[in-house]
């Protein structure tokens, strides 16, 4: 019956409560080492910097990166754009920029910042931004 | 990020042998919950594949890319269903680089453009860059995200069916309901009230108690 189960549940709660009121400093968090932002960034920069990166790995890396709950740092994107250049793939480079704009979501200031930081690279490699090509509007 | 270093380290060293061969990467992204980009056409292609398998080869459904056409009279068992064993193209916001380029077969002009792409990109004109983009991809992000106006269909449908229901109820009123009971008419009700008062229904605190018998009116 429902009431009996609830009462039993409350009983277990009160019984084990003593253990939880033990020293507050001891939390049940995992002891795994958390990667810092810099480590994350450098790992991804290294990934895209591989000289013989192939198209599959570029796609896989990019799709995985976009799957994370973050907007990649310009230096990671710089590495990815250079990988596109090595693979002679301009379209993917432009697509990456579009994806970054989409990833920023409501934070409209991120994309202009990224474009600004990537400015020299875009100039050097000859990558047009989506805005320059007019594909940022329907 | 909680992606293990081992995984990504091995990734950068060599391709991970996936279930489907190393040269094909079968993206399982289509199994995830719907994203903002949801294509009825693509879904229909997938389900058609399964349905066509279940149906006999005679009653075949042929799907054209121009819209959703169900032709139950197929010609000689020719099925057009998406081949799920090869890399597919998807326009998805969360998958910027799909498994294959959009255009598989390139015209001569496209091929020469692809050759030009191997050189410095600064020498490409805007139109050429756009053409290269369109070879690789179908919709731009802006096109993927554009509002569909689906809400108009939804509301239209809602109002239409509410209206239709109204007509059904109206028809019911004239063809289903039994004849109007006379006991609900005002004059009958008046006679009923008079009878109740004459009978002294609830004279202490209820009905007749509210009637002033001297003055002949409600208190």
What does it look like?
The complex is a heterodimer of chains A (138) and B (219). With 138 residues, chain A is an all-alpha fold. Chain A has one domain (37-133): Alpha Horseshoe (Serine Threonine Protein Phosphatase 5, Tetratricopeptide repeat). Chain A has seven helices and no strands. With 219 residues, chain B is mainly alpha-helical. Among the domains of chain B are: 88-148, Cytochrome c oxidase subunit IV (Cytochrome C Oxidase, Chain D); 182-218, no CATH class. Chain B has helices at residues 5-13, 40-54, 108-117, 126-136, 141-145, 150-175, 186-198, and strands at residues 211-212, 217-218. In chain B, strands 1-2 form a two-stranded antiparallel ribbon. The chains are: A mainly alpha (138), B mainly alpha (219). Chains A and B meet through helix 2, helix 3, helix 5 and helix 7 of A and helix 1, helix 4 and helix 5 of B.
Biggest protein-protein interface? Answer: A-B, 45 and 42 residues
Poorly predicted tracts of residues of chain B: 59-69
Tell me the fraction of residues in β-strands of chain B, as a range: under 5%
Report the strand count of chain B: 2
State the separation between the terminal residues of chain B, measured CA to CA. 80 Å
Arithmetic mean pLDDT of chain B: 80
Provide the number of structural domains of chain A: 1
Task: Give structural attributes.
heterodimer, A: 138 residues, mainly alpha, Serine Threonine Protein Phosphatase 5, Tetratricopeptide repeat, 7 helices, B: 219 residues, Cytochrome C Oxidase, Chain D, rod-shaped
């Amino acid at each position: 019956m429902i009431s009996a189960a609830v009462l039993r549940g409350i009983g277990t709660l009160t019984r084990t409560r003593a253990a939880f009121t033990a020293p507050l400093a001891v939390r049940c968090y995992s002891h795994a080492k958390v990667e810092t932002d810099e480590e994350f960034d450098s790992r991804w920069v290294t990934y895209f910097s591989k000289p013989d990166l192939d198209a599959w790995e570029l796609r896989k890396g990019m799709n995985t990166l976009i799957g994370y709950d973050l907007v990649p740092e310009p230096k990671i994107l710089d590495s990815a754009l250079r990988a596109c250049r090595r693979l002679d793939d301009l379209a993917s480079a432009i697509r990456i920029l579009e994806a970054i704009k989409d990833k920023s979501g409501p934070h409209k200031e991120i994309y202009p910042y990224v474009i600004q930081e990537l400015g020299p690279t875009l100039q050097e490699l000859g990558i047009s931004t989506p805005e320059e090509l007019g594909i940022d509007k329907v | 990020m909680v992606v293990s270093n081992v995984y990504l380290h091995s990734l950068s060293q060599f391709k991970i042998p996936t279930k489907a061969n190393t040269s094909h990467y079968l993206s399982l992204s289509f199994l995830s919950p719907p994203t903002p980009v949801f294509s009825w056409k693509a879904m229909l292609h997938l389900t058609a594949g399964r349905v066509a398998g279940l149906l006999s080869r005679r009653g075949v459904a042929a799907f054209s890319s121009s819209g959703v056409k169900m032709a139950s009279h197929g010609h000689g068992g020719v099925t057009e269903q998406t081949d799920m064993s090869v890399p597919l193209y998807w326009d998805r916001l969360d998958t910027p680089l799909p498994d294959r380029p959009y255009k598989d077969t390139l015209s001569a002009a496209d091929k020469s453009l692809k050759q030009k792409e191997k050189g410095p990109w600064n020498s490409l004109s805007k139109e050429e860059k756009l053409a290269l983009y369109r070879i690789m991809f179908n919709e731009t992000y802006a096109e993927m995200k554009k509002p569909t106006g689906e809400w108009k269909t939804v509301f239209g449908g809602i109002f239409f069916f509410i209206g239709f229901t109204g007509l059904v109820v109206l028809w019911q009123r004239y063809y289903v309901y039994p004849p109007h009971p006379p006991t609900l008419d005002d004059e009958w009700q008046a006679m009923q009230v008079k009878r109740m008062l004459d009978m002294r229904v609830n004279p202490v605190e209820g009905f007749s108690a509210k009637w002033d018998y001297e003055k002949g009116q409600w208190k």
